[in-house]
Design a protein that fits this description.
The protein is built from five helices and four strands, in the order ββββααααα.
Length: about 110
Amino acid sequence: KLHVTVDGRYQPCERTGDLVVLGSVNEGIRSDLVQGLREDFHRAVEAGCRECWAVRLCRVCYAHQALCESQAASLTVSVCPGIRRAVEEDFQLLVRVLKAGKERANFLR
């Protein structure tokens, strides 16, 4: 997705605040900034993701990366445990719903 601020800056989403800018309405999207953001993101997550059981269900995004970089924190240390916990809670809820039986789970449809 693409977020446009009130002053015309392009950002990957509204949650990145002033931390990530990809261009503006006047100059367009700058491919060098997009490529840099992509490379930074991959560098931030590559070490921890290879061994993570939740990698296919991960919710880490550019906003998480931007926040961690602005605080000189590690993405995998500060954000990933919470992401894994949320995925685990989703699985626990799914198991409870499935155990409840088909007739009790019809409300989900």
